[in-house]
Every structure is written in structure tokens, then in C-alpha cells.
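Re-run with default settings, no changes from the original entry. Doing this only to confirm the output is reproducible before filing.
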Amino acid sequence: MIRVALADDQLLVRAGFRALLDSEDDIEVVAEASGGEELLARIRETPVDVVLMDIRMPQGDGLWATEQIAADPALAAVHVVIVTTFELDEYVARAVRAGAAGFLVKDTEPADLVRAVRAVAEGEALLSPGVTRRLLDRLAVGLREPDAGALEVLTEREREVLRLVGLGRTNDEIAAELFLSPLTAKTHVSRILSKLQARDRVHLVVIAYETGLVAPGWQ
């Protein structure tokens, strides 16, 4: 079972998410909170795999709570998806840098939200399609000078995989493009995460841009 915590100051939103997710055979909502501090207290008592987090909440907003989760070794297995009505560039960039594994807006289709929970629980990263381009363009503005030397620990195949991760490919898409099995593609991504000491897949996207493996700008 994928254990989910809901953090939103609107009870109706939490009730809707709970009804949607609890109807799935492999997902269970195990905790709810109306603010960041309350969420942290609950997930330290009740293990969770995924947190669906609003941004604007009392007693610790979603970005602050995401930073606290990312900084706590005891919560290293928790994946945060920001789910908000505010599709603002500064929120997206801050969410990714804070440690979020995904960012969705609340008008996302219900089926896409369920898929997002499953994907993030498996270690994937995701962003609403309308958010992805603006996020990477924004991150590119503040990138350091490319440092290809940072990738010396990777094999040539791992660099190929990292480039495709940087382009937003899923494991299945990487496998198809490089003629690998999905399991092999997933193994490569796991090794890259370990070698680069990256927090998650979104962090790998940032690394791909910062090292010049993927060039800023979109075709």
C-alpha cells in the first residue's frame, strides 16, 4: 500500500482527495493536517510514502514544511507533491529547490492525481505540463557555469540516461530510446542518484542543466 498524508487548510479539499485516493486498492490516506507544523508532527508518528501538500497554510506553509522534510534524515523516504491553485513561477522554483518531487495544480484531472501519487512513490518526479517549461527556463537563468567534471563519476551510458532524465523522459521512455529493459533503465537512474548524491529525480534534472549536459532553452 502507498501511504499518503494530506496537508491543506481546506477541509473540503482534503475530503475530496481522501475520497479519491481511498477508492484505489493500492493507496491509503493515513494522515491529514491543516498546516505545516501539524503535518510534521503527524508524519513523525505515522510513516507515509507521499505527502500531497498545499502551499498557503497556517502554522508553517507548504514550502517551509517541504524544506523541513527534506532536511530530516528520519523522513528521507517521504516524497512531497505540491498541489496548489497557485501556478506561479516563484512557487514552482522554490518548491523544487525545497525538495519537492512534484508540482501539480488543483485543476489536475483526478486520474492524473492518482497516477502522480503512484509515480512519486516509485521515485519518479513530475510536474504539471504547463509548469515544466517555465520551471526549467527559470532555473536556467540562475545556473552556475557548466561543470562537466562533476559527471566524471558516471559511465558513458549513465550520462546518456541522465541527459534523458534532464529532458523529462520517464524510465519507460528512456528504456525505449536506449533499447534497454525498463528495469535496467530504473537501475541506471538509481545508480546515478547514488553517485551524484542527488535527492530525487527533479534534482537530477537541475544537475543535467547545471553541468551543461542539457542546454537551457526549448525547441
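Residues 182-195 form the longest helix (14 residues). The two ends are 40 Å apart (CA to CA).
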